Amino acid sequence: MFNNNQRLILILSGSFLSQIVQVGVFPLFLAQKLHVAGVSLSIIGWLLAVQWIVVLVIAPLVPALSRMMGLANLNKVSGFLTLAGLLCLVTPNLPFAILASGFVGAGLILRWVACDTLVVKLSRPANVGRLIGVHETLMGFGIAVGPLLFTVYLLDEIFYAAIFITILSILAFLLNFQHFKHTEDRKNIALLKSDYPIIKIAFLIALVGGFIETASVALFPFYFAIDGFSIKQSAWFISAFGLGGTLLQLPLGFLVDKVGYRHAQLLACLLGLAGVLGLYYSPSSFVVIYGILFMFGGAVGAFNTLAVIQAGSQINENRSASAMAFIAMCYTTGSIFGPIVTANILNHLPNDILLLIYFLIITVISIIIGKELLKA
Q1: How far is CA 317 from CA 97, 108, 121, 188, in A?
Q2: What whole-number distance in Å separates Cα of residue 76 and Cα of residue 345?
Q3: Angle, helix 352-375 to helix 261-281, in steps of 10 degrees
Q4: What is the Cα–Cα distance from 151 to 154, expressed in whole angstroms?
Q5: Could you tell me the pTM of the whole model?
Q6: Contact 121, 72 (CB under 8 A)
């Protein structure tokens, strides 16, 4: 019914709308809802991690599910799971919060792998970097748009907005009628192990990206509250973080097509280090912090983009779903520990320790990438 370009538009639209809710709204909404209910910050960190634990558990199953159901159908299931997760929050108690995180996490990983794989499969080799850049730009924009809702609406109003956006994403996925099964056999899946040394840095930067991005989006409001900023100001900061991840992804895709992903990876790490140092030394100025977080968000958002581009460039197309699933697992592992570690740091230690951890992690990755460049 649709040609490849029209399918890409539907996939990108549905993925963008899903990202607004699954990553941009849900973690922050859940954290604020539980905080208002008197739940401690440490417990909130663990509850936020449930979403990513579910992602990690389900990720290895996604290639098999894609063969059974088709990639387009995975996206439809993703939308309904997310809707179910939101409805669980009608009664905001701990059991339903755990259930909500589980449903949204399952929807997130199905949509994530299915959409990344479809973008790679529907792209020509000459423009795969740019189209992945477009997708990741929309993902970053989703993270930016979600927190902006908290600057305008009350929590209850945000809940209904999230329901509406999720329904729109489901409609976009339902319009993509093509079954689009993913054809990979057991032999090809097994070969991915031999590919690991080739794309090990993709896995590492996805891990770091998950740790920093998830912790920052969910818990930066509490970090900046210690410095005297309001929840609305913190929401603007998180939006800047997401907006940087949005606006810098598309030029990054063009840069990769010109100079290669390895140089782009190193550049992203250096920008990330500059962002951490800027946050540490900056005055308590809204405008200055907003600008620093814009740059820092662009650097951190680039980590997952560059992991996907590297895997899409170096892994055989028939194993692309498995490669994307492994990258998702690495990002998710970081996302599990990010909120837990961050919440406990903010609860028990000076908040600047968080920046020190970010700095050390990115420094290690920079050294590894630099060694790979020297070998090349």
Answers
A1: 38, 22, 7, 10
A2: 38
A3: 160
A4: 8
A5: 0.72
A6: no
SS (H, E, C) 156-167: HHHHHHHHHHHH
- Which whole-number Å values give the CA distances from 356 to 108, 279, 337, 344, in the listed order? 30, 11, 16, 15
- CA 99 vs. chain centroid, Å, equals 20
Residue with tokens 């992690």: 361
Find out whether 300 and 217 touch, Cβ atoms under 8 Å: no
Give the integer Cα–Cα distance in Å for 15 and 166: 10
For residue range 322-357, list pLDDT tens digits in order: 777 778 788 888 888 888 887 887 777 777 788 888
Residue 292 to residue 56: CA distance in whole angstroms: 31
Q: Rounded to whole angstroms, how far apart are CA atoms 88 and 93? A: 9
- The Cα 371–Cα 196 span in angstroms is 17
Q: What tens digit of pLDDT does each residue of 9-43 get?
A: 888 899 999 999 998 899 889 988 888 888 887 88
Quick check: 331 and 203 in contact, CB under 8 A? no
Distance, CA of 19 to CA of 142 (rounded, Å): 5
Structural domains of the chain in order of their starting residue, each with its CATH number: 4-375 (1.20.1250.20)
Tokens 């030394």: give the residue.
281
Element (H, E) at 78: helix 71-88
